[in-house]
Amino acid sequence: METEKRLLIAIVLSLLVFLLYPYFMRMLFPPPPAEEKKEEVALVPEEEVPAVAKEPLVAVKAPEAAAPFEEELITVETPLVKAVFTNAGGAVKSWELKNYRETMDETSSAIDIAATVANINLLQTKFISTGIPETIPFEPSKKRIFLGQEDRAELVFRWVSPEGIRLEKRYIFKGNEYSIGTELKISNGSAVRVKGDAESFIVASYEEETKFYHFGPVRHINEKVERQDPENMLESGRGVINWLGLEDKYFLLAPVPEKDAPLEWETEVPSIDTAQARLSVPLELNPGESRVISYTAYLGPKLYDRLRSYGVGLEGAIEFGFLSFLAKPFLVVLNFFERYLRNYGIAIILLTCIIKVVFHPLTKHSLNSMREMQKIQPQLNALRQKYKDDKEKMNKELMGLYKRYKINPLGGCLPMVLQIPVFIALYEVLSVAIELRHAHFALWITDLSAKDPYYVTPV
């Protein structure tokens, strides 16, 4: 009976750990209050301090605005994405993910991860130089593009200034990718030396329900993922960066510059529900000289296998927590099982069973230790009663009793404690994996990323 009581207590304590863990993390990393607005703080790595501090993105100085022009919209559709581009800065106005809906309702619209912040659109291009308008009125090469699964296509935006400065922005699409290749070619066809900054922007807005996990700027520098605290409104740096992005729990917008390409970057959180980032490359071009700036932009879901395939650490954008070394293999195994079982619910059950089988020796050892402790319980009680007024003597006698019967007093609990990190890692996977978002299991469980509405499964 004593063994069953201890086992029940251990199970209850383990459940409490799982249930209280999210609230514990919320206490450690609370979301910033919406009504407070912090001062702008610029954090610049010591080894990469710019000579002159840059102004916030929303206050970038530019030449006087050019005469208004007629906006042209271009539609690009692939099996994964339906996008709308604008010739105003060669930017993205809409980027709908066909496989991800706003809600479980079948009539719900596809998620659009593009946004407009401070009159800046996603992937908008600027060239900050004398005589260049703040919003460049590009001329698009096509009006509509449709791609199949294995197709490739290009969309080219061109613009030439009266002085002969030519800008050509080229997008390269693949039918089976969420990423797009981007090339910006700047040619100096004027008779004078041109100096300026070629800038590319990403912007995002966020919903309230995403804020339990990090939202906003994230970057990968020196093999390390760094997340910007939303309370730090402005951060910047200069040098080589693997990638710079904006994220929420499930989605990522991240330009990946060319390898070892030095540049300036700046990220800003102007409000509680918006964020923006800028990549800037200083240029000096002699007459007749050209420069090409290339990067790959990932605009899509945080799918571990896809992000990992780029080989630049994009998978670090998935918040697996401090037990990521356990969580990542679990997600790989879940994806493997789902490919054959076609059901993530069954895949989770199978993975849990495998974990229990692996830990069976520890569980068995724990139960055996509890049984041995139960056998000597009368002697333990007798010693406690006999030496209740002499704690030192009682402890000495108890240790002698354990040694005589070759019993480890922690043998019943320690094996169970060792299993807790494994199940916390599994909990993190189930919490952040977009693969489980809106994934159907059976009966009334139609979304494995949401709680059971009837609380049947917890019971």
Could you characterize the architecture of this molecule?
The chain is α+β, with helices and mostly antiparallel strands and 459 residues long. The protein has helices at residues 2-28, 304-309, 324-341, 344-358, 360-375, 377-386, 391-404, 414-432; strands spanning 42-43, 73-77, 81-86, 91-101, 110-112, 116-117, 120-121, 125-128, 139-140, 144-146, 152-160, 165-174, 179-188, 194-205, 216-221, 224-227, 234-240, 243-247, 251-257, 262-271, 274-285, 290-301. The chain has a nine-stranded antiparallel sheet, with no helix packed on it. A six-stranded mixed sheet has the order 1-17-20-21-14-8, with no helix packed on it. It has a five-stranded mixed sheet with strand order 5-4-3-2-10, with no helix packed on it. It is elongated.
Salient structural properties:
single chain; 459 residues; alpha+beta; 6-stranded mixed β-sheet; 22 strands; elongated
